[in-house]
Amino acid sequence: MENQASKPSGWIGRLLLRNMNKRHSGVTDWGLSHIAIPASGAILDIGCGGGRTIAKLAAKSPGAFVFGVDHSADSVKLTSRTNSLLVSTARVEVRLGSVSQIPYPAGKFDLVTAIETHFWWPDLPGDVREVFRIVKPGGRFAIVSEVYRGAGTRMANACEIHAPRIGMTLLTPDEHRPLLSNAGFIDVEIATLPEKGWICATATKPPAL
Question: What is the pLDDT of residues 145-158, one digit of tens each?
Answer without folding.
Answer: 999 999 999 989 99
